Amino acid sequence: MDLLKIAADLFLNKLGTSADGVDSNQLTSALGSLLGGADGQIDLSDLISKVSNGGLASLAQSWLGDGANDGFSVEQVMSVLGQSQVSEFSSSLGLDEGAASNALSDMIPELIDQNSSAGGLLEAVGGVSGLAGMASKFFK
Question: Pfam families, from UniProt (predicted)?
Fold first, then answer.
């Protein structure tokens, strides 16, 4: 299954009853713009880098590991993705910004966790040391 489709399904699930009337094609496009690269596809390694470079390397590590996922607050979502980008995302879908940001804060850790089974994504960023290295660049 395509990563954008997985993300869209998770987002709609987290959104709950607020998801009524959200067009799935429009959602995948909006998620691709918000979480994706230049090609509009979700790049989980890039997303992990954004979280890590936002001073949240231990948070990202919890999602990549096999243990419990640490929570991703709405404030952290806004910090990592950008307030204006989240606002644009929610308005493009006709959603309340609070509902959209809450759904994103629940969806992103689960998306990364589900797609990093057995450390595959952790290895892609260079393991725990690579994740720590990305985080250390933020503090230089």
Answer: YidB
| Residues contacting residue 123 through CB under 8 Å, at least 6 positions apart | none
| pLDDT digit string, tens, across residues 61-85 | 889 888 888 999 999 999 999 999 9
Domain covering 3-138 in this structure, CATH number = 1.10.10.690
Residues 6+ away with beta carbon under 8 Å from 128: 61, 122
Average pLDDT, the chain: 82
- The burial class, CB within 10 Å (0-12 / 13-18 / 19+), for 79 is middle
Q: Name the packing angle between helices 3-15 and 24-35 (round to 10°).
A: 110
**pLDDT digit string (tens) for 82-119?**
999 999 999 999 999 999 999 999 999 999 998 886 54
